[in-house]
User: Which sequence fits this backbone?
């Protein structure tokens, strides 16, 4: 019996009682699933193999249909009819994109109306608030809106388009996509979504993926740094003075907590930064006050599907492995915050506000402009200042007493 099944065949199998299983990691699943699928990792799939005996069989998919073949083979050894979806989730996504081609203009208009009405309070208002609160926009700005292909950056592009319609500031936009070595299919997903959403993207290419492919230690960190450098360089070449990235509120609080738990430091993800390597350039994060759950709700309500990470480390189904992104520190931190929220509904807001209410007098040490300051550096000097302050206060009290006494009359004394 053939182990792979085509997309055209799965509908009939599901109608006949087959179970559709998504074996990708948690992070991948958050970016979208085939409707009707059940999320179940490979190790849990094998542990719970017995429960599938009550069904005619199962259909399993991963990212590209490679690791799901092994999972189907394992289930067949347990005498459970199992198939692997040929091409995996990516094949389904390509098929779905093809079906959307004829409805592009209608979909775009619906999404834009939604931002103006249904999603105005949850998405556009906090976007505009962050831009105003952190003074991100000035007249004459030309902003490179950096699009990675994920839900956050695509939504950011739409919100910038909406903000521009309000004409409160005179600014220009360039929607910049860097292709650091995407596979042709992943690039097509980005181009399709940009066309669907009415975002006129400018694509330029680099070889970053090839550059970091052989690096074993922190390849993702190095890749991110290199990508930012390329974005700054291209943005400046296009006459931009700012680049905009799609980090949101949840990214901020997770970064704060990760710094403490895994980095042994207190730091935040800043809403805007001056570039240290590209003079005159700034980085802004206008999604700073938008919650990730609201972004997901917008994505799902509009039936949109975006890339998770299109790099060569995940492009070959590495997200199906044990060391995939489900084990990342950020996901661990996200889960920790969710657990703490069960007993304290204000936990997220408190983490966010903690870096707005830092009391340096209670810090053992801190760094400013790369220079480390320790509380002992000024400790004795502060004692002298406190002593002098106490002396001045005592003199002030005595003078006030004398002044009050002089104002007393004989009658008031006796």
Assistant:
């Amino acid at each position: 019996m053939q182990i792979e099944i085509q997309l055209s065949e799965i509908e009939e199998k599901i109608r006949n009682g087959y179970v559709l299983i998504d074996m990708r990691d948690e992070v991948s699943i958050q970016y979208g699933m085939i409707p009707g699928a059940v999320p179940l990792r490979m190790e849990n799939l094998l542990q719970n193999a017995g429960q599938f005996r009550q069904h005619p069989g199962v259909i399993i998919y991963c990212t590209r249909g490679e690791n799901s073949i092994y999972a189907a083979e394992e289930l067949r050894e347990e005498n459970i009819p199992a198939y692997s979806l040929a091409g995996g989730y990516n094949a389904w996504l390509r098929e779905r994109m093809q079906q959307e081609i004829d409805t592009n203009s209608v979909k775009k208009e619906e999404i834009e109306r939604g931002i103006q009405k249904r999603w105005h309070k949850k998405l556009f208002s906090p976007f505009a608030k962050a831009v105003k609160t952190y003074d991100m926009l000035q007249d004459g700005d030309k902003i490179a809106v950096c699009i990675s292909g994920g839900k956050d950056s695509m939504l950011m592009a739409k919100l910038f388009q909406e903000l521009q319609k309000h004409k409160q500031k005179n600014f220009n936009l360039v929607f910049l996509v860097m292709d650091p070595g995407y596979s042709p299919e992943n690039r097509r997903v980005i181009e399709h979504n940009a066309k669907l959403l009415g975002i006129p993207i400018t694509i330029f290419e680099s070889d970053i993926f090839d550059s970091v492919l052989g690096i074993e230690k922190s390849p993702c960190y190095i890749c991110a740094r290199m990508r930012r450098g390329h974005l700054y360089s291209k943005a400046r070449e296009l006459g931009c003075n700012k680049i905009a990235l799609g980090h949101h509120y949840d990214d901020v609080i997770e970064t704060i907590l990760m710094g403490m738990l895994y980095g042994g430091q207190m730091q935040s993800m800043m809403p805007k930064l001056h570039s240290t390597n590209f003079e005159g350039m700034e980085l802004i994060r206008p999604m700073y006050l938008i919650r990730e759950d609201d972004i997901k709700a917008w994505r799902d309500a509009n039936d949109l599907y975006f890339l998770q990470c299109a790099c060569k480390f995940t492009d070959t189904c590495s997200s199906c492995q044990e060391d995939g992104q489900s084990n990342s520190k950020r996901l661990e931190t996200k889960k920790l915050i969710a657990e703490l929220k069960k007993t304290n509904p204000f936990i997220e807001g408190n983490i966010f506000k903690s870096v707005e209410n830092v009391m340096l007098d209670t810090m053992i040490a801190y760094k400013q402009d790369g220079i480390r300051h320790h509380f002992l550096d000024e400790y004795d000097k502060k004692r002298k200042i406190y002593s002098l302050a106490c002396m001045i206060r005592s003199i002030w009290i005595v003078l006030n007493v004398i002044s009050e006494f002089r104002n007393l009359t004989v009658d008031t004394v006796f």
Summary: The chain has 17 helices and 13 strands. The longest helix spans residues 379-406.
